[in-house]
Design a protein that fits this description.
The structure is a single chain. With about 500 residues, the protein is an alpha/beta fold. The protein has two domains: about 240 residues, no CATH class; about 250 residues, 4-Layer Sandwich (Purple Acid Phosphatase, chain A, domain 2), CATH 3.60.21. It contains eleven helices and 21 strands. Strands 8, 9, 10, 11, 18, 19, 20 and 21 form an eight-stranded mixed β-sheet that branches. Helix 10 links the parallel strand 13 and strand 14. The longest helix has about 55 residues. The radius of gyration is 30 Å and the shape is elongated.
Amino acid sequence: MNRIVSVLALVLLGLVAAVPTAYTTFVHSERAITLGAHDSTVRPTFDGFARIDSGTLIPEIRLPAGAPAGIGVDIRLGDSEVTDIESLVARDAVIASQPEGEIAAIRSSLTSMALDAAMRGAGVGIITVLAALLAWWAVGRTRRETIWAAARHPRRRQVVGAAAVSGVLVASLALVAAPDRPREERQTWVPIASVFPELPSDAVLDRLEIVEGGATAGSRAIVEGALTTYRTSVAFYGRLAETARTADVRTPEEGETTALVVTDRHDNIGMDPVARVIADRARAKILIDLGDDTSNGASWETFSINSLAREFHDFDIVSVAGNHDTGGTVQEQMVDKGFRLLGGEPVTVDGIRFLGSSDPRGSGLTAGYFGDAATNSEALKEQDAELTKAACAAGDVSVIAVHSPSSAKLAAASGCVDLVLSGHLHRQVGPEPTVGANGRTTTTLTTGSTGGAVYAFALGSKLRRDAQVTIVTFADGKAVGLQPVTFQPGGTIDVAGYQPLTPSPRE
């Protein structure tokens, strides 16, 4: 019995030290992350709201966070590589219309802060318990009995000393556990509809609050523009997703599996839920991402990878980076989000052998390719030769995935692969079968821009031009059929007929 009491006392001591430490560490935590087009910081609160501070020009907004234990978050949007305020706010509005990827990034940061705080609290609790045990053993049984005997008949000085020590201990714990003094709330929060009564009912806007008096004459026009962009984006892509739910696409037969191809999204995250609907209609399990997910490979464009990762979180994602995904940020994000980034060696995903690598060139938003033309052309030829060599050496590669069709011309003619998938051209080319010297048929297909991109930009409140995805059907690890699906700016969807691939024996 005494042993049980002792263990419970030690557990209680550990909790007394750990819980305040973990709590205060959490509420004082802060993380720097990229949200939308901004370098931002997030900090946990316990007011139950997600509060967004965009600076002095645009009023603060908030909405219920819906998190357990009343956890909220303060989001402070900082600098951006986009310097034009109207363009910046318009981009923020479009991103806000498909916020799941950014919400997942914020949730991940809060979870990380909570785990760090819990680990720190646990560490302090363990150290406290160990210190108490060491002190217990160091004092020894004889000395403990003497102290206990004196404690039963304490002197006045001992009572005062014990009270002082207890007071200091309690005060220390209170100071450790106490959060910062709450910020004085001088603002009055009101529903945004009371400031902008022309707003229609919307699941998000109905819960959104704005600082009363924050919509000044200067900021009102900016906010109204952002709200218009937000509503247009939600309405257009919402309708397109509803239409996609009735798209008559082929579903896999017994022994078959399907994959969805996306490419040249160029930041248009509005198409991600639409693409997911088509993937679900086709019962796809794999996403093949052929690159140019961004327009400039900038750090602020990580929202594009966040969105794709969130929308296809339960898929195996096979990917390469495009010529606009420069600087390494996109590739790092892909790996961080669990994408299988192809690097020139065959890999097996769900029984299918893939080969591919990222585009060796780099491009600016509008200035064309970096470097001279001869160097870029040589890089493509070298990439093509390396992929051809790897495919022919492996002998069992089913799919080569590259961004540009120029990266796999030799590979397509070699007869060492069943299917070559590419993007880059922003329009469909193929499918085109080619019979190699070994008698094996290779089919090539270039899928149009999934983002409906014009040049290198697609982010907007609706499609700028036709967008496209492709459904690929596999059987026994081999590509056996293709079905492109095209989305038009008017909101209609054109599902091409299923095209079986020419069968050929493998060497």
